[in-house]
From TrEMBL:
<keyword id="KW-0808">Transferase</keyword>
<dbReference type="InterPro" id="IPR000192">
    <property type="entry name" value="Aminotrans_V_dom"/>
</dbReference>
<dbReference type="GO" id="GO:0031071">
    <property type="term" value="F:cysteine desulfurase activity"/>
</dbReference>
<protein>
    <recommendedName>
        <fullName>Cysteine desulfurase</fullName>
        <ecNumber>2.8.1.7</ecNumber>
    </recommendedName>
</protein>
<dbReference type="GO" id="GO:0030170">
    <property type="term" value="F:pyridoxal phosphate binding"/>
</dbReference>
<feature type="domain" description="Aminotransferase class V">
    <location>
        <begin position="39"/>
        <end position="420"/>
    </location>
</feature>
<dbReference type="InterPro" id="IPR010970">
    <property type="entry name" value="Cys_dSase_SufS"/>
</dbReference>
<dbReference type="InterPro" id="IPR020578">
    <property type="entry name" value="Aminotrans_V_PyrdxlP_BS"/>
</dbReference>
<dbReference type="Pfam" id="PF00266">
    <property type="entry name" value="Aminotran_5"/>
</dbReference>
<dbReference type="InterPro" id="IPR015422">
    <property type="entry name" value="PyrdxlP-dep_Trfase_small"/>
</dbReference>
<comment type="similarity">
    <text>Belongs to the class-V pyridoxal-phosphate-dependent aminotransferase family. Csd subfamily.</text>
</comment>
<dbReference type="InterPro" id="IPR015421">
    <property type="entry name" value="PyrdxlP-dep_Trfase_major"/>
</dbReference>
<dbReference type="GO" id="GO:0006534">
    <property type="term" value="P:cysteine metabolic process"/>
</dbReference>
<comment type="function">
    <text>Catalyzes the removal of elemental sulfur and selenium atoms from L-cysteine, L-cystine, L-selenocysteine, and L-selenocystine to produce L-alanine.</text>
</comment>
<dbReference type="InterPro" id="IPR015424">
    <property type="entry name" value="PyrdxlP-dep_Trfase"/>
</dbReference>
<keyword id="KW-0663">Pyridoxal phosphate</keyword>
Length: 434
């Protein structure tokens, strides 16, 4: 990795700094329809800096081999890189290395939890897994604002176990509060699953209060950290959650890798959702025993080069400074909310500009479908997301089928926000709704 290309840590991200950082991401120099690319779709997937691209290429060119198997030199080097990556990523989120397991993505990690709990509910794992078993009379609680990845698996777990599926409702803005959670979480609650940051409204959940509420009910907490780990400082030990999940591709890392975090005692209780090679201890024709966590959750061929690249992404983000990234994004979000809300016929979802949110804004333009607006923006070189953002229940509650989402990151500068606001304003006239 070319460390000379990595900026100093913790420097405030001004417009000039954001443009400087943009030079580290080769794709951001692209043009779209003859216009400079303004990439405002980081909530869907982040672009990758040179440091990440180079790290994976270097590994594949020099150390590529199967890990935890061969006795030859390349296998030893690859295994060392693989486990060093685990330590790097764990440290980034305030965890110990044996508390994170690699998954295909965050959705996969969340399914590893729910499928493991389903197995525990069938008696798999015996007394050791009993604390994660569910049955009739137990309740699983999510929020109405959840991404489908943190909603559908819990619905399936409820169906598989006979537990009751409940949710914390949102208000007319699409947000919810700790008081709303207290009205739903009760003595029968066994799971409380929620997003740290909403991918639609940018709401930052009161994690500490929710963990305290869940613990008072004896419930397990599961955090969808997809929109928080890439964008703000996160320490899972400090937050106190039992499980968490996040994806590599949303933080400048590669596709095909995600992270399952679990407190050490919780991972020990969780039966593996997938079985096969690599995660076994002893295999006989009459039965099999499994390795200790986290290895027991990593069956088959591991995502080795992806883990190495994700660790490079972590080092890059650390060098920029997560607090600086969070402050930069919150400032951009407040501006987007204020200026979009000031446009006639434009409705921004979530709280107003006075309430801190992560660096995104989802909005509706009266009389213009989000897909049409997204295409209009694309013609001007502005990449945004149009649709329900894998949050259909939230959109349905708000009386809409879709919205347009602009999401920022460390490379976003105010001139890109200027282009967004100006183009949305012009779109109303172009579509004849001004």
């Amino acid at each position: 990795m070319n460390s000379a290309a990595i900026p100093a840590s913790g420097v405030e991200i001004t417009d000039s700094r954001a443009r400087q950082l943009r030079d580290d991401f080769p794709i951001l120099a692209s043009t779209v329809h003859g216009k400079p690319l303004a990439y405002l779709d980081f909530g869907a997937t982040a672009q990758r800096p040179n440091a990440v691209l180079e790290a994976e290429q270097e590994f594949l060119s020099t150390h590529n081999a199967a890990v935890h198997r061969g006795a030859h030199e390349l296998a030893a080097l690859a295994t060392g890189d693989f486990e060093e990556a685990r330590e790097t990523v764990a440290g980034f989120v305030g965890a110990d290395a044996d508390e994170i397991a690699w998954a295909m993505n965050a959705t996969d990690a969340l399914n590893m939890i729910t499928l493991g709990m389903a197995a525990a509910s069938r008696g798999r794992g015996g007394d050791a897994s009993a604390p994660l078993a569910l049955g009739p009379g137990d309740e699983i609680v999510v929020t109405e604002a959840e991404h489908h990845a943190n909603l559908v698996p819990w619905q399936e777990l409820a169906l598989a176990t006979g537990a009751t599926f409940r949710w914390i409702p949102v208000d007319d803005r699409g947000v919810w509060s700790i008081d709303d959670a207290r009205a739903v979480v009760g003595p029968r609650t066994r799971v409380l699953a929620f997003a740290h940051v909403s991918n639609v409204t940018g709401l930052i959940a009161p994690v500490a209060e929710l963990v305290e509420l869940a613990q008072s009910a004896g419930a397990v907490t599961v955090l969808d950290a997809c929109q928080s780990v890439p964008h703000r400082p996160v320490d899972f030990h400090e937050l106190g959650v039992d499980f968490a999940a996040f994806s590599g591709h949303k933080m400048g890392g590669p596709n095909g890798i995600g992270v399952l975090y679990g407190r050490r005692e919780r991972l020990a209780q969780l039966p593996p959702a997938r079985t096969g090679g690599s995660m076994i201890e002893v295999v006989e024709m009459t039965g099999t025993t499994f390795m200790d966590p986290p290895t027991r959750f990593e069956s088959g061929t591991q995502p080795v080069s992806e883990a190495v690249a994700l660790a490079a992404a972590v080092r890059y983000l650390d060098s920029v400074g997560m607090s600086a990234i969070a402050a930069h994004e919150e400032e951009l979000a407040a501006r987007m909310v204020a200026e979009l809300s000031a446009l006639p016929g434009v409705r921004v979802l979530g709280a107003d500009a006075s309430v801190p949110r992560s660096g995104l804004a989802s909005f509706v333009v009266d009389g213009v479908h989000s897909h049409d607006l997204s295409q209009f923006l694309d013609a001007e070189g502005i990449a945004v997301r149009g649709g329900h953002h894998c949050a259909q229940p939230l959109h349905r509650r708000l009386g809409i089928t879709a919205s347009t989402r602009a999401s920022t990151y460390l490379t976003t500068s105010s001139d890109e926000i200027d282009r967004l606001i100006d183009t949305v304003s012009r779109a109303r006239a172009w579509f004849g709704v001004a």
